[in-house]
Amino acid sequence: MPTHFTIQTFAEEKPTISGQLTRQSIAGKQEKNFSKLTKATNQEIDLSGIVKIDTAGLAWLLALFEFAEKKQIQISYSQPPIELVKLAKLSGVDKLLPISG
């Protein structure tokens, strides 16, 4: 199983994050990927391709949300893996994570 993640962006579709969103995979890639994911003023990001996430991955998603807010961009996350939902509840940040439908 790959130990990295990818971001796929298509002109008319919402961006998709796939792979492992973990401490090892996110190191040093924050600004570049945040800019890639915040091109529209209202952005929904599909998380259905995430196969593994840890607390660092959760923190990365929260930091992306904060980055977008500072740029006055509204983002939401759709189709989160159950592992993310459980981790957010255990960490007490489930109310902070903008998850849609």
Explain what the structure shows.
By secondary structure, the chain is an alpha/beta fold. It has a single domain (5-100), classed as Transcription Regulator spoIIAA (2-Layer Sandwich). Helices cover 38% and strands 29% of the residues. The protein has helices at residues 23-26, 30-37, 55-70, 82-91, and strands spanning 5-8, 16-21, 42-53, 74-78, 99-100. A 5-stranded mixed sheet has the order 1-2-3-4-5. Helix 3 links the parallel strand 3 and strand 4 (74-78). The longest helix has 16 residues, at 55-70. The protein is globular, with a radius of gyration of 12 Å. The N and C termini lie far apart (28 Å).
Q: What structural class do you assign from the helix and strand content?
A: alpha/beta
What is the end-to-end distance? Answer: 28 Å
CATH topology category name: Transcription Regulator spoIIAA
Total helices: the number is: 4
CATH superfamily: STAS domain
What's the architecture in CATH terms? 2-Layer Sandwich
- Could you give the order of strands across the largest sheet? 1-2-3-4-5
Major sheet = 5 strands, mixed
Q: Which residues sit in consecutive blocks of at least 5 with pLDDT less than 50?
A: none
Helices and strands, in N-to-C order?
EEHHEHEHE
| Name of the CATH class | Alpha Beta
Number of strands: 5
How big a fraction of the residues is strand? 25-35%
The domain tally reads 1
Short description:
The chain is an alpha/beta fold.
Question: Mind sketching the topology for me?
Answer:
Layout: E1 5-8, E2 16-21, H1 23-26, H2 30-37, E3 42-53, H3 55-70, E4 74-78, H4 82-91, E5 99-100
Parallel strand pairs: 2-3, 3-4, 4-5
Antiparallel strand pairs: 1-2
